[in-house]
């Protein structure tokens, strides 16, 4: 799950991570009032969308820049009026862009240095890793590719936690001197936030040092471990489904895992590994998968029906491949769901089904006796070849 910058600031304030004063606004008037409340003339208005590169983004209206410097409350109102309700296109949104529903009005600061800072879960070492660079404010992927020596990594033992010597080491590597204590406090607070909120990533690009030697987290990107959200209802409530693919939202509401792709062959599979293998074999046979849809190991008939509805919500889909391996899953439950789904939605697209495993004979019998136009397959290769041929 991702959150907006203004929501990240709420967490920063809670855990003592310094960031510029600011307020969120949903209307131009609210932006004006936020600027008045800040009572300064050096202000920034930032579009709130789940995408990077906002400053260089362009609105479909022609207005350029999702991050704007302004010098008065009236200017903040005018800029907010040009952003709110408009679609912002950045290098991370694709051509579709993102609708701006909120803006954040913050105090601007005069910057002398910019630092990149992130804390991630490193899956290979099974521990958090702090990633930092003196090249803050830049495209960090380009920095890592062109000058990898400027990327600093410090692994943190999850039992021992962040140690003082590690903070001193990072301060030295990043060239902090007079502001080292401030950066150390920020780092300790950020690590505590990362652990206590079950984050999978916290990225600040940049952490800034001002001309008067203050340190602030100027921008933030958060990812949370979905499996830990039950412990944090206040964070789960921050979810903005308007920023997500409606199909992915519908899937999550039905307990399904869905990711939309660009092909025309929909996949309905149980298990992430089998889903990946199914997409691979479709491509091997010359087709293009339209989605990743994992119904999990214990899907119900209702979930299968929901999965079909989500699949058919994609106008690009020209055929469906169901590939089920019944371990703890009962193939007959899947078969009954397929039959009910095809009848409910009036399916007219080619449908190839391959069942194997637990109670497979009963499942095949259910399909055969249904009267529904289903193309059966014995193996993954057979199924992939048949659905690729069927969609032409």
Question: What does the secondary structure layout of this molecule look like, with pairings?
Answer:
Blueprint: H1 5-15, E1 22-25, H2 28-38, E2 43-47, E3 58-59, E4 67-70, H3 73-83, E5 87-89, E6 98-99, E7 103-107, E8 111-122, E9 127-133, H4 140-146, E10 151-155, H5 164-174, H6 180-196, E11 199-210, E12 215-217, E13 221-224, H7 233-236, H8 246-253, E14 257-260, E15 265-269, H9 272-284, E16 291-294, H10 301-312, E17 319-326, H11 331-345, E18 351-357, H12 360-368, E19 375-376, H13 380-391
Parallel strand pairs: 15-17, 17-18, 18-19
Antiparallel strand pairs: 1-7, 2-4, 2-7, 3-5, 5-6, 8-9, 8-11, 9-10, 11-12, 11-13, 14-16
Helix pairs in contact: 2-3, 5-6, 10-11, 11-12
Descriptive overview:
It contains 13 helices and 19 strands. With 392 residues, it is an alpha+beta fold. A hairpin with an 8-residue loop joins strand 5 and strand 6.
